[in-house]
Amino acid sequence: MTERSAPRFAVTRSRDSADIAAPLLAYLRQRVDAPALVFAEPPSPILGGFDTSIYAFALGNADGPYSGALIARVFRTPAEAERARYEAAIQNAVASLGYPAPEVLLVEPQSDILGAPFVIMRRMPGRAMLDSLLGLHMGSMATLLGQEHARLHALDAEAFRHLLGDAVDPRRLASIDNVHARYEEGVAAASLEGLRPALRWLREHRPAPAALNAICHGDFHPLNVLVTGREVTGVVDWGWVAIAPPALDVGATVALLTHGPVDLPRPALPLVRVVRGWIVRRYLRAYMSARPLDLEEVRYFEALRLFDFACEAGEQMQAAAGVIESDMQSPFFAPHVRDGVVKRLRRLTHTEVALPSTA
Looking only at Cα atoms, what is the longest distance across the chain? Predict the structure, then answer.
């Protein structure tokens, strides 16, 4: 699990597309030395990460790599230049290994163009797997998700490190070396005393170091996997990458599949939980048909990621109650979502986990 320079799920509002069109075009004309560039398709916002603004566009009169569909990914604050460089290096290294990560063409660390650092990358074809996962092809998509995740973990992690060279500090790729200390700080800062029992359990039950680590995406879920038909055409959002036990990545995916927020009427939620459980079983079965997996380790890392969700929700709750100052806007803040996270965390850790009272 890697450090990130902005709150992981802080919501950022996209600037109006018209506001970025002129400065982006002027920048690209100068940067690629092509004064005749125009927009064949002007920038338009698309669904993307919680902490970046993402725009799709295409250029006219462009040659080479700039002639296809492109993405501008604008980061949240002017302080995220290092994060922009980091994610670009990660994506290009993964793409060099033959995995469908979007190649980054340009990194702009300065904020005077679009208000924050940004990257220009190729736009991968296809649409989010989630669109198909919630339809008639639910079973095949769950299977495809497991197969594609196993394919990522089969990549050569040492070759990946070699491709990164000096572009990324190796400490950024550490798995959970500093996670418990960071969680301790977060619990103390937000006065989340009800989470301490689970944190103690996580410290005491940390698995032994893995004999073989893998490239872990860290946020591998159906919104970050693109498909055309029944083929994966792209995997996006590489800001959580770690060289870590594959179970860390799988546990995070299980947590996201089961507790990622859904906007449905409360009466539908019990059925949704049943369906989600079935999807997780299909996903795990497909993964394990390709690669071995210790399910006890998976449950540990599921709990680790759920703890992260609970911390986010708790921080926002404490801010809303006036206990702390924070701009956290967590997707796990909704009562039915955070209640589900806490219930599952209790079951996994066998501890009395609690978030602050809202009374």
Answer: 64
The reply to whether 208 and 290 lie within a common domain is yes
Tell me which residue range forms the domain holding 113.
17-122
Alpha carbons 169 and 117: distance in angstroms, whole number: 20
Residue 320's contacts (CB-CB under 8 Å, 6 or more residues apart) are none
Domain with residue 78: its CATH number is: 3.30.200.20
Q: Among residues 122, 145, 176, which one ends one of the domains?
A: 122
In a domain, 108, yes or no: yes
pLDDT per position in the chain (359 positions), as tens? 333 333 333 334 445 666 899 999 999 999 999 999 999 999 999 876 567 899 999 999 999 999 999 999 999 899 999 999 999 999 999 999 999 999 999 999 999 999 999 999 999 999 999 888 777 789 999 999 999 999 999 999 999 999 999 888 877 787 566 788 889 999 999 999 999 999 999 999 999 987 889 999 999 999 999 999 999 999 999 989 999 999 999 999 999 999 998 877 778 888 889 999 999 999 999 999 999 999 999 999 999 999 999 999 999 999 999 999 998 989 999 999 999 999 999 999 999 999 998 75
Report CA-CA distances (Å) from 98 to 76, 87, 155, 160, 280. 29, 17, 9, 11, 27
Tell whether 354 is covered by a domain: no
Q: Is residue 356 part of a domain?
A: no
